[in-house]
Amino acid sequence: MGKGSGYGKVILFGEHFVVYGMPGIVSAIDSTDAEVTKAVKGINIKDERKTAKGYSEKKRLQQIESIERMLKAMEVDPKIGLDIWIGGSLPGFSGLGASAASSVAIAKAIAQELSLQIPDERINQIAYEAEKAYAGNPSGIDNTAATYGGLMWFKKSMASGPDTVEKLHMRKPVEIVIGSTGKVANTKAMVEGVAERKKKNPQKYDPLFKQAESLAVAGRRALEASDLKKLGDLMNENHRLLQEIGISSKELDMLVDLARKQGAFGAKLTGGGGGGCMIALTPGKDLQGKVLSAIKSLGFEVLGTKIGVNPY
Ligand code: MEV
Q1: What is the pLDDT of residues 268-291, one digit of tens each?
Q2: Ligand 1 mutation pick, 9, 12, 17, 19, max ligand atoms within 8 A of CB
Q3: With 60 as the cut, is the pLDDT of residue 35 above it?
């Protein structure tokens, strides 16, 4: 049996804008594990992740396409039979990079089962190919976070060169709360929607993209100085930009407002939007617990974790 795992992530700055070469800041969170065994025939998936209702069903076709893309990128016979088990502590909620985390986990497990020596750099490229099934035209931020973990600065290369990936440090890990709207979102449709609206209305969108770039730069400075008040304010500002490009939702805005009212330093949607998850910056166990309980009391799924923890 081959085993592998990949990190989930939260984006602190720059989702959607990263697709167009703006910088983004991402932190790895919990991970997805995979186990793979050769089978007589077919790709047989047993998905035991905790998920939002309907997640596995809605993602099923994209998941199959992603594995086909993965096998092609790995130059493995597409007719191979494989039993694939997926589990781990990262929940299958939209917005947390669950698809990229599972792609990295599965690619590593396949490599181990087939005795292929594949370095992480190549695993990352393979997961990028697989991610196209879920995101259409992905920036690469999710698979990069899923492969290496940690806290990082990511800038997609818009030419043929490599993406810019830099490790970031905080003085100490900081508590966050993740709230899930419970709505399964289609990242591909969200990315395509932004592309269409941007094309139709460059006068509105171009300045917003410039602002997103400045925000990420300021966010990096605040993060590296552990200026958490500033970091929270900038996250709030990032949420406003995401609202303007049309990717927030009623539930996301409601959870973001609720978290801020409970004292979160900042809150924003995270990932593709249109449902999925939001994050709140809640330094200290007390504040984290307060925001967590408030969201939970309304019947939403929550996850309390930290940014700046995992190695890279
Ligand atoms: C999804 O986690 C992040 C998006 O920016 C898509 C991508 O960068 O590939 C929405």
Answers
A1: 999 999 999 999 999 999 999 999
A2: 19
A3: yes
Q: In terms of residue numbers, what domain contains 36?
A: 2-168
Ligand 1 in contact with 141 (CB < 6 A)?
yes
Number of domains in the chain: 2
Q: Tell me the three state secondary structure of residue 187.
A: helix
pTM of the full structure: 0.96
CATH assignment of the domain containing 46: 3.30.230.10
**Mean pLDDT to the nearest integer, 33-53:** 94
Domain boundary among 168, 201, 225: 168
The confidence band for 310, taking pLDDT boundaries of 50, 70 and 90, is: low
Is 221 inside any structural domain? yes
Question: Is residue 312 domain-resident?
Answer: no
Residue 142 is a catalytic residue = yes
Last residue of a domain, one of 115, 144, 168: 168
